Amino acid sequence: MILCLGGAIAVGYFGIAYFGAKPEEIGALGGKDERIFIGLSTLLFNPWIAGIILSAILAAVMSTLVSYWFCSSAIAEDFYRGLFASECGAGGTRVGGSFDGFGGGDDCHRHCR
Fold this sequence. Notes:
By secondary structure, the protein is mainly alpha-helical.
């Protein structure tokens, strides 16, 4: 965590120094200071290298979204089991499942017959 925080501070200070010396290139940020990493990577690196660096941002965003997705599905499953488990009991028969987007379903959803 210290290494990541140090890297973020270094990117910020480098951005202040770079865009302070070249104010004409600040238009690449679109007036949003939180895009300093994106702006620096596209301005300073070869497009191939910048694409690899920017894909790291996309990977982090996708990882965060998937973790939110799994967390919300676990909460929904808990509510679902709480609603239908008392009616079905242990002898409920599985009549359907849920598709999880990765080619499989889970066996947690049971309905009474």
